[in-house]
Structure formats: structure tokens, C-alpha cells
Design goal:
The protein has 195 residues and is of the alpha+beta class. It has two domains: 1-30; 35-168, no CATH class. Helices cover 14% and strands 34% of the residues. The chain is built from one helix and twelve strands. The strands form three sheets. Strands 2, 3, 5, 6, 7, 8 and 9 form a seven-stranded antiparallel sheet that branches. Strands 4-1-10 form a three-stranded mixed sheet, with no helix packed on it. A hairpin with a 5-residue loop joins β11 and β12. The longest helix has 27 residues, at 2-28. It is globular. The N and C termini lie far apart (99 Å).
């Protein structure tokens, strides 16, 4: 009888050990909240990121992402609603850009501030805005631009930023301009409306 009573005890011990190991594995992997860009375009791309940091505006680059792969370009909880991206097609030569200007350069970079880019030896580059809707985790699906040629069926998902030179595709992206009460346009400066 002693041998028979050991088998249920061994099963119980193995089951408890399994639960303990599973709990340890689940607690060891912290939940990741990041900003990711998944390259669903047909070519490899290089990505630059701009955002408001604790000490002011900051731009960083480059994350090289092959077609069909994703890159984490900001690690951790997203503490800002808006991030800004500039993406260059490394093979086809096009870009996904916008009217929010920040500093970049050809080599890897981290640049603080968005003013006087050229005077400081950097390039002045237009970034497009990404609204994360105040979520702590966000994934952007980067796709080829929508074809406007009526002879070819295009991907009309509305999520792609237009390539340089394309007309606006009506995807709701804010270009940063504001027509004030004076009828002029404000591109981010202090417009008192006295024109």
C-alpha cells in the first residue's frame, strides 16, 4: 500500500510544479507597449522618428526594415499622443513624408531640437503625423500608396501615407496647417490674427 500512495503524491507534485513553472514564465515576460512600424510595402524602407521628449523635440533614425517585417521604433509606453515619421523607400526611391519639419542626417542620428537644422549641419525633413489615440501601444501598417490609375485595382485601405508628389488621399492625416480667423494659414508659428 505504501507504493500505491506514492503515485498520487508524485502526480500532485508534478502538477503543482507545472503550475509554478507556468506562473514564473508568465510573470517573467513583461507586457510590451511600443510603437511599431510593420512594412507591408514591396521594398525595404528606412524609418526616422520624431517626438516630443522630456527636454523638447527629438528626432532619431534610421531603422531599416525589409518588406514584410516589423520594427520597434519607440520602446515602452507611449507617453505622447502624436509621433512623427519619415520613411524612405530604399529601393524604389519614394518617400512617405509630411509637413512637420524636423532635423535628420544620412547616418544614424539622435538630434535634439527642430530649429535651424541646416545651420546646425543637418537636413530639414518633412515628417507625417501618427495619431496613437492616447494608447500606450501602437502598430502602424506601412503600405504602398493607393494607385490612382483607373486601369489597375489599388489597395484602398486609407492607411498609407502618400508618396512625395502624390495628391492627398483623404486619409485624415493632419498636415499641421490651421486657417485662423484672419484668413491666413498658420504652420505652427504664433499667429495673433492681426493680418
Amino acid at each position: 500500500m505504501v507504493v500505491g500512495s506514492r503515485v498520487p503524491l508524485l502526480r500532485l507534485a508534478a502538477t503543482l510544479l507545472g503550475f509554478v513553472l507556468m506562473a514564473l514564465m508568465m510573470s517573467a515576460a513583461p507586457a510590451r507597449a511600443d510603437l511599431r512600424v510593420c512594412n507591408q510595402s514591396s521594398d525595404q524602407v528606412s524609418i526616422a522618428l520624431g517626438y516630443r521628449a522630456d527636454k523638447g523635440w527629438q528626432s532619431e533614425g534610421w531603422w531599416v526594415t525589409p518588406a514584410g517585417k516589423c520594427a520597434v521604433i519607440y520602446q515602452g509606453d507611449l507617453h505622447s499622443r502624436f509621433f512623427y515619421l519619415y520613411v524612405a523607400d530604399d529601393i524604389g526611391g519614394g518617400v512617405w513624408d509630411g509637413s512637420n519639419f524636423m532635423c535628420t542626417r544620412d547616418e544614424g542620428f539622435t538630434i535634439f531640437g527642430v530649429e535651424d537644422c541646416l545651420a546646425r549641419g543637418y537636413e530639414r525633413t518633412g515628417f507625417f503625423e501618427v495619431d496613437t489615440q492616447n494608447k500606450t501601444d501602437w502598430t502602424l501598417q506601412l503600405t504602398d500608396p493607393v494607385q490612382t490609375d483607373t486601369t489597375t485595382a489599388g489597395n484602398d485601405n486609407g492607411d498609407a501615407a502618400p508618396l512625395e508628389g502624390d495628391t492627398a488621399n483623404g486619409n485624415g492625416t493632419d498636415d499641421g496647417t490651421d486657417s485662423g480667423t484672419d484668413g491666413g494659414t498658420d504652420t505652427g508659428g504664433d499667429d495673433a490674427g492681426t493680418d
